[in-house]
Every structure is written in structure tokens, then in C-alpha cells.
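Anyone opening a protein record will find just a pair of labelled lines. A complete record is shown below as an example.
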Amino acid sequence: MKIVVCVKQVPDTEARIRIAPDGKGIAEGDLNWIVSPYDEFAIEEALRIKEKKGGEVVLVALGPDRAQSALRSGLAMGADSAVHLKDPLFETLDTLGTAWALAAAVRPLAADLILTGQQGVGGDNSQIPGLLAEILDLPQVTMAVKVEVGDGKATVEREIEGAHEVWETSLPAVISAQKGLNEPRYASLKGIMAAKKKTIETRDAAALGLKPEDLKPRTTVVGLELPAARPGVKMIPGDADTQVNELLRLLHEEAKVL
């Protein structure tokens, strides 16, 4: 069974984000970059399926040179090989362009299952799984918290607001991973050493059969702003009765919610 996992490299979730001078991106500078946590769930699930069913796990990532470190992380966890999509044309892609590039790389791999994270931490667009499935003309199930793979089909439990629901889909299909699907493993020293010898194939737009007009962005970032600073906590002194009366006054006169 061949499983392809789409991987995105994102800033460390504990990093302090600064806006770039042009106001349209983030200042990368000394940021630490990691595999998007949702994609770690996807990698782990692919490895668990491989351990049960056999086969191989192939990682695909789009990005600059630094994206190879994300692929190496996945290879150290146990993936078999990786494909790095790198081209100057990819530097200005929107989510649709990214999906087209990923689809062009995934299609010839003839995967039995394609796994992605539910969303890439940072952008949090949650658009790639659906776009990828549409371009590849495959069924999709999103926000998976449990996946059981059978002969030519998969049973997927997914999370919805206030409940879970179960879907059955034919394979190949695109399934996106949600938090709770599993607990990603740590790479062992043996895995880290083995990852250094595993293959990462680099492919550009031409190798994928893509032209500039295929990747032209349909959306434009007008500007980014950091959230407004939150006001400090206001402490109300006095006994309980005094505090309650003052709180009611503040809610009525300042917050104007009463």
C-alpha cells in the first residue's frame, strides 16, 4: 500500500511572530521552523497503517530549501522517501496554486491513500485537503480522529461540532488529520541516522508539467496586522458585595453589555 503524506513547514508555535517590513508577510529572520503539528498526525497515521498493512510512505512538501528539514523529520519518524517541490514560481503561490503543485506531484505516485493535516498552523486556511481532492477527482473525508483501512476502502470517524460521525469511502481518497487521531512518535536516534541516507527528490515546476499561468495567484495579500494589544486586567477591591456592585456598574457603563 502506498501512502502519500503532504507536509508543510511552519514557524514554531512558540515563536514570537513579527510582521515583515512590506506588511504582507512575516519576518522569517531567526524563526525556528517545524513540521505543522496537524501534519505530524498525518505522518504518524501513515506509519501506523504501513505497520499493519505493509507498503511505503512518501512525503511531499512544497517550499524553499529549509523545507527539507521538515521532510528529514518525517523520514526520521519512519517514512520511506520524500519529494521536495521547489521553484521560484512557488514563492508567491496562494492555496489554489499550492494545491495544483501538490496534485501534480502526487498524481504520478499512484497513491492508495493521501493524508494531510486538517490545516497548516499559521495560515489555518484548511483549504488544501479539499482543493487537492477536487483536482485529483478523489473522495475526501476531513477532520479525521480515527481511520480504519480495509480492502479498497476506509472507515473514518470525523469530528464535527458537538459530535462525531462515521464515513466510509472508497480508496484512493484524501483524508485530513485532526488532533486526537493519534499521538505522533518521537524520532529515534536510529531513525535520525537512517533519515540521512533516505532519498529526497527535488522537482521544479517544469518537471511537474506546470507553467506560470497555471500557478498565477487568484488571491492577493493586502496586508497583515498583529492583533490589538489586550487591556490589562482590572482588579476590583473590597468585599463580595462591593465587588458585585462595582462589576455590574462596569458592565453597564463601560462594557455596555447590560
Q: What stands out?
A: The longest helix spans residues 37-53. The mean pLDDT is 92. Residues 2-214 form a domain with the Rossmann fold fold (CATH 3.40.50.620). The chain is about 25% helix and 25% strand.
